[in-house]
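Journal club side-thread
Mid-discussion, someone asked how the predicted structure for our own chain would compare to the paper's figures. Pasting it here so we can look after the session.
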Amino acid sequence: MPATAKNLTYQAFVSSFNKDKISRFYYIYGTEEYLKRKVYNTIVDEVIPKEQRDFDLVIFYGDDCSIVDFLDAVSTRPFLSEEKVVILRKFDSLKTGNQQKIIDFLTQNEIFSIVILIADSFDNRLKIAKQISQLGPIINCRSPYRPEEMLPWINGEINNQNKTIDKDAALLFVNRVEMDYMTAASELEKLLLFSINTKRITVSDVQISTGYSKTYSVFDLLNAVGERDMRKTFIIVENLMDNKETAVFVISMLLRFFVQLWRINALKAKKISDEEIVAKHLADIYTSYRRNHLQYAKRYPLSIIPSIFSILLETDTELKSINLEEALLVERMLFRIFALR
């Protein structure tokens, strides 16, 4: 690869990546963790089968890394796969001397692994940067400066799902989401779930997926979910979040709701009549809502309710461990629930 072609943007890397010409070295840097992960996953997916990654994929972290162990890993041959990948994340958190030792070693010795260094920055004025440039491609995964820069990314992601998106719809999407790829990827996941039954994504799909604002209560939310009314559900969710309702409360109410539907379906499986269920088994549901719940239970059969419980639990865990807006996590959770059949 010519020296002038080694400094690549994320999109340039994606468009030029050739699985038959994989380099022995990559340097990935920038502020966008989502894009950096996409780059190294693209490489790993091509060279190591999933079932062999416990043996031939090794990951180190610069803030907790033995240089000796890292150099030993890159010097040994793969155990099961044809290739071995050694990743060093947070490379720029190493002391300058240790960074130089690694680059000198990679420059001067035969390497039996594909080496991927991941950092937040790359200063091409430094001597070490010139050495890195001689080893292999450098991929810049920076945040977008304006929404339109995200258009190639969204078009590529949607094309990978064998779908198309109208130009106006793509433009609306990138102008509605935050200008970071992690958040945008979560919004895109929602859009893809919403449009699961269509090959073409329109402006209307994006408008509904990215939300509206009205005035509703959590009980309206439960009824909309029970009706499987996706459009109304997300109007209500946006309103609840805008009015400072907590995601934990929404999840707890949905859990209670689906426990009720699970109980109704379990009773019906035992051939208990609707009349007996209403009269004897739904004391925790307001009288006027009990027959509505019988109808809702038909839309959520026993076979999918365990998966719904898992989604609720996963989202509750994500609230405590992922730095994303509560509204975004709740909306993604509901899209996943609606996708179950």
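Post-session note: Confidence is low (pLDDT under 50) at residues 1-5.
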